[in-house]
TrEMBL record:
The chain crosses the membrane at residues 20-44, 64-85, 106-127, 147-168, 189-214, 234-256. This is DUF1206 domain-containing protein. InterPro entries: DUF1206. Residues 24-89, 106-172, 192-259 form the DUF1206 domain.
Length: 263
């Protein structure tokens, strides 16, 4: 009787499933391009939410948007399942034993992609909500207890840690080993994209800490809040445009991942 690991390996051996999982990277790329576009639009004085819910809202507002959301949901589920299998048995393209850190990264990404899939499902059903409002609401409830406050610190630490790792991966070019045959274009997109996204994630973590110390849950509004905080600083318009451009570049790098990532 095949073991669970063997059954998981059989899943990723299916070429059609791999193609579907790679579509998840394409969807991620589109979302980051939209978030970057919205951030630049906000910098120029127009409205919008520069986060995943804002990107979903942009997509659903177009003709055929509901159908697109169903496609987005399926693509993210496929990518999430792929990451779960990767965390269990490792990458199909590599024969080395899976380290604890590799498992943690793979399972964390799986949780993130499942969350994106759920959000896409709610928008497809016409019940999508603002990520900023949900984050602020959850933070407000967490502040009502000591355990909740500790959870906020943990969440902030995770964002700062993951953001720091993104910056490190971008600056050190560690992402190059994730690609089959990286070149200059891939190196440039990855360096800019990972660093920009890392800084944005660090900003989210800092805002969670600020919300806790000021007892103002309205500060904990996720990516949208982190980017809009930039606009309030000196040279804020320029900073927000640069940040939006960097996140859009990460979107372009996601297309590279769709084509060339080792899976």
């Amino acid at each position: 009787m095949p073991t669970m690991n063997a059954q998981a390996s059989d899943i990723v051996q299916n070429p059609w499933f791999e193609r579907l999982a790679r579509c998840g990277h394409i969807v991620s790329g589109v979302l980051h391009l939209l978030i970057g576009y919205i951030a630049i639009r906000i910098a120029l004085g127009k409205g919008g939410s520069a986060d995943q819910s804002g990107a979903f809202r942009e997509l659903t507002s177009k003709t055929g948007g509901t159908l697109v959301m169903w496609v987005v949901m399926v693509a993210f589920i496929a990518l999430a399942v792929w990451r779960l299998v990767e965390g269990a048995v490792g990458k199909r393209s590599e024969s080395k034993e899976v380290s604890v850190m590799d498992r943690v990264k793979a399972f964390s990404l799986a949780v993130l992609y499942f969350a994106f899939a759920w959000s896409a499902f709610t928008f497809a059903k016409g019940a999508g909500k603002s990520s900023s409002e949900q984050n602020a609401g959850l933070t407000a409830r967490a502040m009502e207890s000591g355990i909740g406050k500790l959870a906020i610190v943990v969440v902030a630490g995770v964002f700062i840690g993951v953001g720091g790792y993104h910056c490190y991966k971008g600056i050190s070019k560690k992402f190059m080993k994730d690609l089959k045959s990286p070149g200059t274009v891939e190196e440039t997109l990855g360096t800019i994209g990972y660093t920009a996204k890392g800084l944005a994630l660090i900003g989210i973590g800092v805002l969670f800490i600020a919300a806790l110390f000021t007892e103002d849950p309205g500060k904990a509004t996720g990516m949208d809040g982190a980017l809009k905080t930039l606009r309030e600083q000196a040279f804020g318009t320029i900073l927000l445009v640069v940040a939006g451009f960097g996140i859009a570049v990460y979107g372009l790098y996601s297309f590279v991942m769709a084509k060339s990532a080792k899976m």
